[in-house]
Write a structure and sequence with these properties.
single chain; alpha/beta; Aspartate Aminotransferase, domain 1; Aspartate Aminotransferase, domain 2; seven-stranded mixed β-sheet; globular; binds pyridoxal-5'-phosphate
Length: about 400
Amino acid sequence: MISPVMPTYARAPLEFERGEGAWLMTTGGETYLDFGAGIAVNALGHAHPKLIAALETQARRVWHLSNLYEIPQQKALAARLVETTFADTVFFTNSGAEAMECAIKTARKHFSAKGEDRFEIITFEGSFHGRTIATISAAGAEKLTKGFGPLLPGFRHLPFGDHDALHAAIGPQTAAILIEPIQGEGGIRSVPTQCLRGLRELCDKHGILLILDEIQCGMGRTGTLFKHEQAGIAPDIMAVAKGIGGGFPLGACLATEHAASGMVAGTHGSTYGGNPLACAVGLAVMEEVANEPFLAEVRRKSGLIAQRLGELADEHADIVEEIRGEGLMLGLKIREGTACGDVVQAGRDAHVLTVPAGDNVVRILPPLNIPDADIAEGVRRLGAALAAVKAKAGA
Ligand SMILES: *Cc1c(COP(=O)(O)O)cnc(C)c1O
């Protein structure tokens, strides 16, 4: 008989009832070090007092209003995002996929409002943009799309890093290029900063829009508030989610006034998007994360963990091929012959939580405010996990 919860996930048999900082406690009272942060969501760890306070205060005032009325917390969060980023305007959602949906609709509407027949969006192999029909169509990988057709037309999938294919693919119907500055689900694959600049130049040359999916790599994860800042460029449209809610469901589609020119009253909506609870928490997250001292700390912690992981990779060079990623968005590329899932499971056995990704990579996505001692402890446990995988393979 089918389980009451639709069985779309292969879940680990772990039940957590409490969290604090980078630690999770099971119902049985065991503790685990969280190097996954709910897939890059719990940016400030678990049970952060300021996030709890923001949520509790708002919960006593009003939970939901709908976008039929002004929502002060939503206005304040939009203003904060506009003041700190390239964007002139923001649409709030409850998830990453919805933020991507808004990004896709904004790009299409931009050209249709101008009377131009440009709708095609160029995307890349290995990408992940969510699980709605539009976003699986955008990513294109069979493991996401199989059996869900007919898919949404209007996406052109190109190999990752193939510049010639990219130049050749731009035609009169091209509306936008959509890319994750660092692929998350695809296996922590970074787009070099000079390539991000090249994409910006290409979009400008052809009068098309650059859409960045910073749902996983944004919100301080790479040591700047958004990854594209390191390339000195700005997108026209950007999808944000995960870290911005610190664990409360919240997403956002940010755009320039130019890109959002078609998004006038009545063109898009969401019942829950931008609700007072989510935006109150989002504001508290921005307050903590969007400042130079916090981001400098992320960069310092990144150096610390990268150094320790490097030592680990040297010690276990027979299993670990390389360390990938930036900031606190890191990956252990596991050599052929060992499955990344086995390393993740051995990590669980050693009470450190990580996240598997494509390309046989183990993702390491700790809370951005993880204490140094917890970094050291987590890497030590990962070492124990790798040793256990090796012992098992040898046995
Ligand atoms: C998680 C993720 C999404 C989808 O977000 P959901 O909240 O699961 O809909 C989209 N793009 C990227 C890069 C992601 O990491």
